[in-house]
Amino acid sequence: MELEMTATQLQFVREQPIPVEFRGAIVGWHRPDFVVEQSVVVEIKSVSRIEPVFIKQVLTYLRVTHLRVGLLLNFNVTSMANEGIRRVVL
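RE: above sequence
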């Protein structure tokens, strides 16, 4: 995916660390797989089915990046067009 985005000259950041803060201290990091064109969070999975926790993960990434649209891509499907792409909107 990274190679394709580079070939098509899309601007993206891969696994940019975003701090998780609690009471003013950094206690962990969020790392979305990709932020594309500073407007879309892309999270990649290869699972038998999309679980609600994966959608919540993308929603969290949207909140911390202040973006509104995310794509959850599951490569463990027969057809990407029919089953593999889930749009998540904040």
